Amino acid sequence: MAADTIHHRTCPLCEASCGLELTIRDGAVLRIRGDRENALSKGFICPKGSALQRLHEDPDRLRAPVVRRGDDPATATWEEVSWDEAFAIVEEGLRGVQQRHGRNAVGAYFGNPGVHSLGAVMFNAPLIRAMGSMNIFSASTVDQMPKHVSSGYLFGNPLSIPVPDLDRTDLLLMLGANPYESNGSLCTAPDFPGRMRAIRERGGRIITVDPRNTRTAQNSDEWIPIRPGTDAHLLLAMLSVLFAEDLVDLGAIAEFTSGVAEVAAAVEPFTPERAAAITGVDAATIVRLARELAAADTATVYGRIGTHTVGFGTLASWATDALAICTGNMDTPGGMMFPLAAHESGRGKGRGRGFSTGRRHSRVRNYPEVRSEFPVAALAEEITTPGDGQIRALITVAGNPVLSTPSADRLDAALGELEFMVSVDPWCNETTRHANVILPPPSALERSDYHMAFFALAVHNFADWSGPLFPTESLQESDILARLALIVTGPEAGTDPQGLYDLMIDGALQSAIALPDSPIADRTVADLRRMVTADPSRMAVDHLLDIMIRTGAYGDWFGAVPDGLSLDVLAASPHGVDLGALEPRLPAMLRTASGTVELANPAILDDIARLDATSATPPDPDALVLIGRRDLRSNNSWMHNVNVLVKGKERCTLNIHPEDAARLGLVDGGEAEVASRVGRVVVPVEITGDILPGVVSIPHGWGHSLPGVRAGIASGRPGVNTNVLTDPEQLDPLSGNAVLNGIPVTVAPV
To answer: What is the Cβ-side half-sphere exposure of residue 684, based on CA atoms within 13 angstroms?
Structure first.
């Protein structure tokens, strides 16, 4: 028997990015536990991380390309083929649609698992550019697009997202977030619960605003229940109090912040009394929250899914940051701060072109593009509505929109109308069962790992890289996406992705050489390229990452900064590299045209007026609204085929308050029919006092009952798809984000 070996890497299963210690015996994972020496996570691990090898070993995971034989996904069979044969079929399918109908006839959808893969993060963009299609969609518009838009308007860059400085704050105000279950989102904070406990232990306070008394709320100093979808009213009322009581103090960023007077005038009508009638939060509490925020030595305002997936998601997202700005808690230790990841340059002139949307519009409903994509709620209609630009072929990468997007049954039917579909995914799931070809990338243990997206959102600056743990016969995800990019480019692009890799590597090096005051201005691309590609065992994504790290804020600049970072340094640091606490970055990182933090963007002021106009009608006290919820052992739909994560008590249930259950004749453990304007489901009932009366909840990401899915565990505990109930016509107009919370429903016993 071979000796056990110990390996370290970062968990890729949620945004927390915890360090793992894996014990390997005879080519298999024997044990996974938290890496106690990891500078960011310090040994923390959740149930998902400890089950990582179960995903790797899942017998339903595809190890080779498969081609669907048969037109009906419910009865079709799948045949394993070689990579060359698979790409030949893909080439015929995609290029055929392009030649018959034009480039816009090929659309693409990118799911959130892709952001956990370095290959997808690096090569999704080249694929999109090669497609030359306006029909691009992603999971961002069911999740986080409001934060991108509000950050773009405030700071000029939709990726400049401030995170709560959890380790130094005195007051944490959270809305629509449940990090005890989610581990945090748009905020990379391993052991978020432990960081919350530390706030209270050092004398700070935590206040959670949520329609449910979640585990997070139960471990806070105060739970404030609120009617779903009304967060913007609460936040604007708090801003109104700050201005009315002369509590506004912008602190260090006052000299480069604009629009304060315009915001003061815009929020004046939103009195605490008016907000109380809409939110269910009494006026005295609203006033007290504003005063506490202003009086705290340091404070953070963190809003997440519950505040984003509503009709005023962008406005609520803007308002959380506006509160931090107006109380002097933006870009200051203990407040909302901007991380600086190892792959980021940290350079900036303090101004730029700014951020805008609507450079083009969707064909059917005229939705404006946001960050070069359309709302995914429009995907089904763009497939089924005839006319120029109709989507007739689709590429999906690491996503399951049939479960995760509005009016999901409509999209499921629409996918059946496509002329061709190819999916980059390791499973035959509810979405990929419609594909003509599935191209499976390797497992998380068979690829290089660096959490590019999440280190840029970390509450403490940190870097960590690891190479593949196991060999694989599969193509790397970067190779798959590069081959797809060559196919949609046209026959002149060839079939060898090395040409694309060379182009990207040389371009990255030339850009670094050409930077003002570049430490490598006297070097040549050829010279630097030899240094980057010296290790032949590393892949193209590693070479590109090495360039980004070496020319980043902490980089060695190819020897010009002797103690700087490189991929070699990270490879020699199995527990990661501590890059220090967050530091102020404004105004240098601003990209607004004015060179200021622009509080009063016209789009935001218009949306405040829209909110004002919709506030005339108070909520119906007898109506029921639906919200989602998370579970620590689940991450949307892609964790449900691991028995250890789904066994035990049924978790896909309808949470309902005892008063509502009694009024409607529901019994605990019975079944209820839940209906919205667009659909209905039957779901087990779970009566609980931990939810606001008038609110019901079903978790997101279930519904594994469709025929043709190859997921033995998930199909045995299918649950119901709550997105059958979400309305594709209800969107946040500024971001195109779907409204997944606060959905009007009726509930009746079965």
So the answer is: 12
Taking alpha carbons only, the member of 738, 624, 599 closest to residue 676 is: 624
Packing angle, helices 231-244 and 602-614, rounded to 10: 110
Q: Which amino acid is at 433?
A: R
pLDDT band at 676 (very low <50, low <70, confident <90, very high): very high
Tell how strand 171-175 and strand 437-439 pair up. unpaired
φ/ψ region of 85 (left if φ > 0, alpha if ψ in -120 to 50, else beta) reads alpha
Q: How confident is the model at residue 636 (pLDDT cuts 50, 70, 90)?
A: confident
For 303, residues 6+ apart whose C-beta sits below 8 A from its C-beta are 174, 175, 176, 177, 231, 235, 316, 317, 320
Helix axes 602-614, 145-155, angle to 10 degrees: 130
**Tell me: the pLDDT tens digits for 13-38?**
999 999 999 999 999 999 999 999 99
Dist. CA 171–CA 335, nearest whole Å: 9
- Nearest alpha carbon to residue 218 among 594, 564, 690: 690
Domains of the chain plus CATH, in order, are 63-143+355-449+472-573 (3.40.50.740), 165-338+586-612 (3.40.228.10), 620-749 (2.40.40.20)
Let me know the angle formed at the C-alpha of 384 by 379 and 386, rounded to the nearest 5 degrees: 120
Q: Are 525 and 531 in contact (CB under 8 A)?
A: no
CB atoms within 10 A of CB 712: 12
Structure-token pair, residue 509: 């090096």
Q: How confident is the model at residue 635 (pLDDT cuts 50, 70, 90)?
A: confident
Cis peptide preceding 587, ω within 30 of 0: yes
The pLDDT of residue 616: 65
Residues with Cβ within 8 Å of residue 446, at least 6 apart in sequence: 56, 468, 469, 470, 471, 472, 474
Q: Kindly tell me if the per-residue pLDDT of 1 is higher than 60.
A: no
Helix, strand, or coil (residue 56): helix
From CA 734, how far away is CA 738, in angstroms rounded? 11
CA angle centred on 555, ends 553 and 558, rounded to 5°: 140
Which tokens sit at 416? Answer: 């059946």
- pLDDT of 2 reads 67
Parallel, antiparallel, or unpaired for β 77-80 and 336-337?
unpaired
Residue 315 CB neighbour total at 10 angstroms: 29
Nearest to 467 by CA among 494, 444, 449: 449
Cα dihedral sign for 585, 591, 594, 599? Answer: negative
Given a cut of 80, is residue 530 above it in pLDDT? yes
Are the C-beta atoms of residues 324 and 337 closer than 8 Å to each other? Answer: no
Backbone angles phi, psi at 254, to 5 degrees: -60, -40
Tokens read off for 706: 């469709």
Rg over alpha carbons for the chain, rounded to the nearest Å, is: 25
What are the φ/ψ torsions at residue 654 (nearest 5 degrees)?
Answer: -95, 110
DSSP for 4-52, written as a single string: PEEEEEE--SSTT--EEEEEEETTEEEEEEE-TT-TTTTT---HHHHTH
Is pLDDT at 621 greater than 90 in this prediction? no
Which residues does residue 625 pair with via DSSP β-bridges, in sequence order?
A: 695, 744
User: Would residue 407 be called left, alpha or beta, if left means φ above 0 and alpha means ψ between -120 and 50 degrees?
Assistant: left
Q: How far is CA 471 from CA 330, 468, 480, 718, in A?
A: 46, 7, 17, 33
pTM across the whole model:
0.97
Q: Is the pLDDT of residue 557 over 70?
A: yes
